[in-house]
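Pilot study result, target chain (83 residues):
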Amino acid sequence: MLKQGGFMAMYCFCLDALPPTYGTRHTFAHRMGNAHVESVFYPEAAVAYDQEFLFEVAREAGFTTVELFSGPEDLQPMLLCHK
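Predicted structure:
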């Protein structure tokens, strides 16, 4: 729970900001609900989401500002949200 004015920063795989390892180590070839997973045997090992889904869930949680930041060397982009 965050009070008004609080920030949340979270690193996650996002299919709209693919990591440099996409296609060599990560493919996220399997869909499970809203998630795209690397392995159906170990789905928690690497999970990616669509940006639209991440933003929607953040706004439903009460965040008014939602942004995704990704640098060229980042393996995962950062989801930054503000209430």
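One observation from the pilot: Residues 43 and 56 are 22 Å apart (CA to CA). A full batch analysis is planned for the follow-on phase.
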